[in-house]
Amino acid sequence: MGEQRSNSSQRPTNGLSPSRLKLLAAPFVLFALLFVVRLVYLQVIAAPEYRENAASSRTISIDIPAKRGTIYDRNGNVLATSVDATTIYANPKEIKDRAYAARALAEVLGGDAASYEELLDRDGTFVYVKRKADVEAADALRQKGIEGIYYIEDTKRVYPYGTTAGQVLGYVSVDDAGVSGLELYYDDILRGAPGKLVAQRGNTGIPIPGGTEVDEPAVDGQDIVVSIDIDMQNYLEQRLASGVQEIGGQDGGAVLMDAATGDILAIASTPFCDPADPSGSEVGSDSLKPVTQAYEPGSIFKTVSMLAMLEQGAVTPDTTVYAPAGLQADEYVIADAHERGDMTMTARYVMQDSSNVGISLLVEQHLGFRPLYDKIRAYGLNDPTGIDYPGEAGGYLAPDVESWPHIVKYNVTFGQGISTTPLQMTRFYGALINGGVAHTPHLLIAKPQSGETVEYPEVDVIENKAAIEPMISMLETVVQEGTGKDAAIEGYTVAGKTGTAEYVDEETNLYAKGSYNLDFVGVLPDASSRLVCFVGVNHVPYKRNVAGMFKDIMTEAISRYRVVETDATRAD
After folding, report:
1. Which of 447, 485, 522 lies closest to 221 in space, CA to CA?
2. Largest CA-CA distance found in the chain, in angstroms, rounded
3. Predicted confidence (pLDDT) at residue 386 exceeds the cutoff of 90
4. Strand pairing class (224-226; 71-72)
5. What is the pLDDT of residues 537-564, one digit of tens each?
6. Rounded CA separation 438/542 (Å)
7. Per-residue pLDDT tens for 273-322?
8. Which of 149, 203, 287, 506 would you call most buried, defined as having the most Cβ atoms within 10 angstroms of its Cβ?
């Protein structure tokens, strides 16, 4: 018999076919593959995120404020700077005797112990105790060795001149961010970039000794130099405050500017603001009103109307107009500020005596209201000046001249029914002694660290230069013989204009009765420096003028800047 042979290749030893083996092995292969993918994901893709989460669970990050740049006045005096301070914080979980700690904090830092104890009773591992504390106070607290109290080197903002120029400078928040004034406008330059302090802690939340490090160093801000002369500013503020009180006004504002450059040498409004204690200052005191508040300028606007006519060749100083005692306009009657009879007056006399009737009729008969409107726009009195200060207001004048009521047409000629800002009027008068060129009023003049040149636009706003001389001559007459006699300065030629304006009562929405806004703006047309000064006092209960305040401020400027009388500038 032949021997039978088995075919082992066709008979599996375990009784399973190859296809069935593959089927059973597939889940294990898939599981292994998923495990590998998950491992790769955890170790490669998700690892950074997990490391970050793990790190964050055992660390606390605290911002390190950058030191703000210093603000200097034009003479190098420090107006605002940052000095060393210490921020104090606590880990409530680490403090064993909270009552004792609270008493110690109150003793050194001031305040109520109960308030500190309530602070230390809060949940969590971090709470600010005192931000920007004096270094001396922080050092005294350190000596007490209270466990759970920690210290961060910090800075705080100080203003060496107190309230002087407070509105110009503005103030910062506890986080060293600009809130108002130049601190806000130039915050991106002054603020710098904060850093980060990282403190490691255990699973109880308690910081690990030696586990504190600077993760990102702070980058200090840059310094700026501004056009303000702090001594001149101080005098202007003192004279403004005393003048408002003497004349019985509610508040006031003043501006001293170099018309040749646009540099603001001094500017303020009452009440004043303490940038180191803004919460303790009067509401609204941080607003620089000559920049931020528009108003009806009154008779100082007559210069705008007269210049517009002179530019057009429509009048000369000797042009005459018959001016009745009262001028009918719709259902109203326009009159001058003081009683007089019907009379014929020259254009020069209209300015000298500040006649509302005279200027209204001159414009109506020799220029027209549409050309006047166009000149107002050309002089830049409807648009913001572009000063580098937050919240500048613009002027306003309804554009549809043809639809104006007759009373509005007349009112605009003498500065009622139109709004401007004191700074706009200052800029306009400055152009008169600067060859018709209006410079952009500004405060920043230098960036010391970068060496960057600061430039500002200038606009030639007076097209017909021949109109400048007769206009200045008429303003000189105002001071020499007219309503502005109190502005005269011995040995100097002064040209300027008084203003007595009505204002709208916010409660009645009508012009207030028996109360006025008073202003004066003037220049030194024949002097070695092209200074222009505005002074205004609001809500005065009787008609006066503020020319005497202008005189005192300009006299101080003459002395301080050694201004001499010369006719050299008149030819420019």
Report:
1. 447
2. 162
3. yes
4. parallel
5. 999 998 888 999 999 999 999 999 999 9
6. 34
7. 999 998 888 888 999 999 999 999 999 999 999 999 999 999 999 999 99
8. 149
Q: Which of 418, 412, 375 is nearest to 396 (CA)?
A: 418
Alpha carbon separation from 355 to 271, 467, 518, 522, 540 (Å, rounded)? 33, 21, 16, 18, 21
Q: What are the distances in angstroms from CA 289 to CA 235, 245, 251, 443?
A: 18, 18, 10, 15
- Reading phi first (left if > 0) and then psi (alpha if -120 to 50, else beta), residue 366 is in alpha
Distance CA 552, CA 196 (A): 52
Nearest to 457 by CA among 408, 357, 385, 505: 385
Token pair listed for 324: 């009745």
3-state secondary structure of 328: strand
- Taking residue 76's Cβ as centre, other Cβ atoms within 10 Å add up to 7
Residue-by-residue DSSP string for 553-564: HHHHHHHHTT--
Residue 341 has phi, psi (to 5 degrees) of: -90, 180
Token output for 68: 């703000």
Supply the pTM of this predicted model.
Answer: 0.84
State the Cα–Cα distance between residues 51 and 363, nearest whole angstrom.
79
What is the number of helices (H) and of strands (E) in the chain? 18, 20
Amino acid at 155: T
Residue 108 amino acid letter: V
554 CB-near residues (< 8 Å, 6+ apart): 256, 487, 489, 494, 522, 524, 531, 533
Query: Using one digit for the tens of pLDDT, what is the confidence trace for 43-98?
Result: 666 556 655 554 455 566 667 778 899 999 999 999 999 999 999 999 998 998 99
What length is written for the chain? 572
Two tokens, residue 323:
């001016």
Residue 290 and residue 423 in contact, taking contact as beta carbons nearer than 8 Å: yes
Residue 370: CB atoms within 10 Å: 12
For 356, other C-beta atoms within 10 Å of its C-beta total 24
Burial 334-348 (b: 16+ CB within 10 A, else e): bebbeeeeeeebbbb
Q: For 347-414, give the secondary structure using H, E and C.
A: HHHHHHCCCHHHHHHHHHHHCCHHHHHHHHHHCCCCCCCCCCCCCCCCCECCCCHHHCCHHHHHHHHC
Q: Identify which of 131, 126, 134, 104 has the alpha carbon closest to the alpha carbon of residue 117.
A: 104
Q: How far apart are CA 384 and CA 421, in angstroms?
A: 9
Residue matched to tokens 């050299």: 568
Residue type, 473: S
| Tokens at 247, concatenated | 């004349």
Instruction: Report the alpha-carbon distance of residue 263 to residue 74 in Å, rounded.
Output: 10
Give yes or no for residue 487 having a pLDDT over 80. yes
Cβ neighbours of residue 216 closer than 8 Å, sequence gap 6 or more? 64, 195, 196
- Paired with 195 in beta bridges are 64
**Residue 295 pairs with which residues in a beta bridge?**
420
Contact 333, 327 (CB under 8 A): yes
Residue 332: exposure state from Cβ atoms within 10 A (0-12, 13-18, ≥19): middle
The Cα–Cα gap between 202 and 57 comes to 9
